[in-house]
């Protein structure tokens, strides 16, 4: 008798993390599980996978998704016990996910009605527990529905109903299951999910404690997370060599380092100072001559960042690539690594005089002081870019700029302050002053560099951390606190990030690369 081929009898069930290609199936699953409730939106599920991919699970049976769950990490002490689903999940987008939080919060669990009694829900809950152990989280917290309550609503209060379910006198398909999974009831919340008619909008706040939790974890709660920033108001004056440029740049970096700065930001295209000795009259040819100094420029700032132990936003510089000239801002980290951000929007002046090409990538950079973004001058006047960067985690947006009159300067300043308010983020502007009398299209400059914060009680009264006097050769140094920023986003007087009506609008990328 030949060996029995068991493969034809296999019925494969797989538990895995959710992927983008699963979204349509999960939306359809939600409609089957909760036909009388609003289903997931694609944008919400995309946000889950982008922000916290490890916290999203699904169960696949014979190639079909039959169960799924979503979750995020929070520091639950920062939320009211009487919270609603919309508050704790940022209206289903989990933008309030806190990687340094202590609690895994269960957003939703769904099991296909045709595949119940296969322990699909149990598998999903076990996956959450394993994730909590892996990430050393203190507990899992959920807001549990009580869908059979409507059958007893006329006879008992929600608390009486919950007590009867705990005594096993009443069966509730959700609460009974969660109790068996080791969750204990902490309280009953009202108006948790307004469209959950079966539960009367009530929910049980439940918790599973991770007995393997180690209080002395890698996370330390911070009372403050100060970051010191130096913005350079750079004097444009005639020089005769790259060595003179080196000396002037090093002076500013030395000043920033003496103040103990974590970042120093130079202005946009301040390297055009080199044109003052290149003796090229045609602007379109002068920028190509300037681009030949790119490697020297990069070597200079890499050396200074490491030697002075400060992260440098090296203003911006004209770079030639494949025959095109780009306006590029570089980040020189103090560990010697380098990143770059191309200017996305070229101004009419840049196109007319220099033929500047536009970049197609938006970056958010990791640093030893958190995530930052760089948006060059004109780019800050397009609010979508700042919103995208903050959604990806940026806490500080650096804005190197170069303007030749007060009107141009005020456009940059007002937009930088608006972006700080709209996105609950710090913004930093650094501009050029002085003049280059022998350089076409770079003859005069106007600037007042500054550091800005959201306008709320926790920050500077007028939203200005610090600013230079206008049109002089100087720097401004100021401290921003990322911990205050984090708390403000969760519990400020206004919470623009959390209160967005994503059900009505969203920023959508079309052809633009974003990492």
TrEMBL record:
GO terms for molecular function: acyltransferase activity, transferring groups other than amino-acyl groups; hydrolase activity. It comes from the Bacteria. The keyword Hydrolase applies. InterPro entries: Acyl_CoA_acyltransferase, C-N_Hydrolase, C-N_Hydrolase_sf, GNAT_dom, UPF0012_CS. SUPFAM superfamilies: Acyl-CoA N-acyltransferases (Nat), Carbon-nitrogen hydrolase. Keywords: Hydrolase. Gene3D superfamilies: 3.40.630.30, Carbon-nitrogen hydrolase. Pfam families: Acetyltransf_1, CN_hydrolase. Belongs to the carbon-nitrogen hydrolase superfamily. NIT1/NIT2 family. This is Bifunctional GNAT family N-acetyltransferase/carbon-nitrogen hydrolase family protein. It comes from Alicyclobacillus acidoterrestris (strain ATCC 49025 / DSM 3922 / CIP 106132 / NCIMB 13137 / GD3B).
């Amino acid at each position: 008798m030949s060996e029995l081929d068991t493969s034809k009898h296999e019925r494969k069930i797989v538990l895995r993390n959710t992927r983008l290609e699963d979204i349509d199936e999960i939306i359809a699953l939600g409609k089957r599980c909760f036909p009388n409730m609003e289903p997931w939106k694609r944008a919400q599920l995309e946000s889950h996978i982008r922000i916290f991919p490890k916290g999203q699970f699904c169960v696949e049976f014979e190639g079909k998704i039959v169960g799924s769950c979503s979750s995020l990490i929070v520091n639950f002490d920062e939320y009211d016990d009487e919270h609603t689903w919309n508050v704790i999940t940022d209206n289903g987008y989990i933008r309030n996910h806190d990687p340094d939080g202590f609690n895994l919060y269960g957003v939703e669990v769904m099991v296909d009605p045709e595949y119940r009694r296969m322990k699909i829900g149990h598998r999903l809950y076990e996956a959450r527990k394993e994730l909590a152990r892996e990430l050393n989280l203190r507990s899992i917290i959920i807001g549990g529905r009580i869908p059979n309550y409507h059958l007893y609503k006329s006879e008992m209060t929600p608390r009486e109903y919950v007590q009867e379910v705990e005594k096993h006198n009443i069966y509730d398909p959700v609460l009974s299951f969660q109790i068996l999974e080791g969750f204990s009831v902490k309280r009953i919340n009202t108006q948790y999910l307004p469209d959950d008619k079966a539960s009367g909008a009530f929910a049980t706040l439940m918790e599973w404690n991770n007995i393997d939790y180690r209080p002395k974890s890698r996370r330390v709660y911070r009372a403050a997370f100060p970051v010191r920033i130096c913005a350079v108001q750079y004097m444009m004056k005639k020089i005769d060599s790259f060595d003179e440029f080196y000396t002037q740049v090093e002076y500013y970096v030395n000043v920033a380092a003496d103040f103990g700065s974590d970042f120093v930001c130079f202005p946009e295209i301040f390297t055009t100072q080199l044109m003052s000795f290149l003796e090229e009259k045609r602007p379109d040819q002068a920028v190509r001559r300037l681009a030949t100094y790119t490697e020297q420029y990069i070597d200079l700032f890499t050396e200074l960042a490491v030697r002075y132990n400060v992260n440098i936003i090296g203003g911006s510089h004209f770079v030639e690539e494949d025959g095109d000239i780009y306006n590029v801002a570089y980040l020189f980290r103090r560990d010697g690594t380098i990143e770059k951000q191309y200017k996305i929007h070229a101004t009419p002046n840049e196109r007319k005089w220099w033929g500047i090409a536009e970049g197609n990538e938006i970056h958010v950079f990791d640093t030893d002081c958190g995530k930052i973004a760089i948006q060059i001058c004109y780019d800050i006047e397009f609010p979508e870019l700042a919103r995208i960067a903050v959604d990806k985690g940026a806490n500080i947006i650096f804005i190197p700029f170069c303007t030749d009159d007060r009107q141009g300067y005020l456009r940059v300043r007002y937009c930088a302050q608006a972006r700080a308010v709209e996105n609950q983020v710090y913004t930093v502007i650094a501009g050029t002053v002085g003049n280059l009398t022998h350089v076409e299209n770079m003859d005069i400059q106007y600037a007042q560099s500054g550091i800005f914060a959201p306008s709320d009680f926790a920050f500077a009264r007028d939203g200005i951390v610090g600013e230079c006097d206008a049109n002089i050769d100087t720097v401004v140094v100021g401290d921003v606190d990322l911990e205050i920023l984090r708390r403000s986003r969760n519990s400020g007087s206004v919470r623009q990030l959390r209160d967005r009506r994503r059900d009505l609008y969203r920023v959508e990328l079309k052809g633009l690369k974003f990492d």
